């Protein structure tokens, strides 16, 4: 391994690490040498991830956390510093999606979205805020919590998990698309503020990734064909591929990279919406 990619001795926090992309990122950071604190709401899933990290020879803590609650976020940061002495990398991965129309559309249907909520009711104000609180405001809360520590050390890496939906506009994803587009802009704003203190802030924008959440959709032949048709490389990603990009952004190899959103979607954004 090139020494610039070595994460030996680094400490990372990864939210939403119980499954899917978050778990893939946590395990890949551990493979590169980092000790990883994993956070999500479900303890059982976190404990599985933490156990797999320990099998790789790294230290790990599983800390159940509601990323929308400031007290939980601050508690996670304090607990990590108490146990490991520092935080080198923060990965804001926790997120949700609610598939609903903004207003009711008579006769509306979208085949293949078995994960969608009821089509009979439009997106509520509460649901709108739940998506934005989880996908966007949580990153703001974590920045406020880790900021004093990283700014004081004049060192740190923050990686926000956005989406190629920050550039696209698939139907019925309004709250998700808006939250991810805003997260990419928040990444730029934070990079501008904290760049003078040697803190790198970047984002990763995955496209279609095979996870527990996407599996029901991808299992539908018609929907799977439509998704893959929109991707020049003709396939979905796996969580480890997202993790490998996270390793780069967490390492010294990216020391002069900040304020960027890296789309890792097989080229889907080159084709516009493609849905």
Short précis:
With 275 residues, this protein is α/β, with parallel strands linked by helices. The protein has helices at 20-31, 43-55, 70-84, 125-153, 174-194, 215-218, 221-229, 239-250, and strands at residues 11-15, 35-40, 60-64, 89-92, 156-161, 199-206, 261-264.
Give the SSE layout.
Elements: E1 11-15, H1 20-31, E2 35-40, H2 43-55, E3 60-64, H3 70-84, E4 89-92, H4 125-153, E5 156-161, H5 174-194, E6 199-206, H6 215-218, H7 221-229, H8 239-250, E7 261-264
Parallel strand pairs: 1-2, 1-4, 2-3, 4-5, 5-6, 6-7
Helix pairs in contact: 1-8, 3-4, 4-5
What tags apply to this protein structure?
275 residues; alpha/beta; Rossmann fold; 7-stranded parallel sheet; 8 helices; 42% helix; globular
Runs in which pLDDT lies below 50 for 5 or more consecutive residues are none
Which CATH top level class of one domain fits?
Answer: Alpha Beta
User: What is the CATH homologous superfamily assignment of one domain?
Assistant: NAD(P)-binding Rossmann-like Domain
Number of alpha- plus pi-helical segments = 8
CATH topology of one domain: Rossmann fold
The description of the largest β-sheet is: 7 strands, parallel
**Helix-residue proportion:** 40-55%
């Amino acid at each position: 391994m090139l020494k610039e990619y070595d994460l030996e001795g680094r400490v990372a926090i990864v939210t939403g690490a119980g499954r899917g992309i978050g778990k893939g990122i946590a395990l890949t950071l551990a493979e590169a040498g980092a000790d990883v604190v994993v956070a999500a709401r479900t303890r059982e899933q976190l404990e599985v991830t933490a156990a797999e990290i320990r099998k790789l020879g790294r230290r790990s803590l599983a800390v159940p956390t509601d990323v929308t609650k400031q007290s939980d976020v601050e508690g996670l940061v304090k607990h990590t510093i108490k146990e490991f002495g520092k935080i080198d990398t923060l990965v804001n991965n926790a997120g949700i999606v609610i598939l609903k129309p903004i207003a009711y559309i008579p006769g509306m249907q979208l085949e293949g979205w078995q994960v969608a909520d009821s089509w009979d009711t439009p997106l509520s104000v509460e649901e709108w805020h739940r998506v934005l609180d989880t996908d966007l405001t949580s990153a703001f809360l974590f920045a406020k919590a880790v900021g004093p520590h990283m700014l004081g050390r004049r060192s740190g890496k923050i990686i926000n998990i956005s989406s190629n939906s920050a550039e696209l506009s698939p139907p019925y994803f309004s709250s998700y698309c808006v939250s991810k587009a805003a997260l990419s802009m928040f990444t730029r704003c934070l990079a501008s503020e904290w760049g003078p203190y040697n803190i790198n802030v970047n984002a990763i924008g995955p496209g279609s990734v095979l996870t527990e959440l996407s599996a029901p959709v991808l299992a539908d032949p018609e929907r799977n064909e439509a998704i893959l048709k929109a991707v020049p490389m003709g396939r979905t990603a796996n969580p480890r591929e997202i993790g490998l990009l996270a390793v780069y952004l967490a390492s010294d190899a990216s020391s002069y990279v900040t304020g960027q959103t890296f789309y890792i979607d097989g080229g889907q954004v080159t084709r516009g919406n493609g849905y």
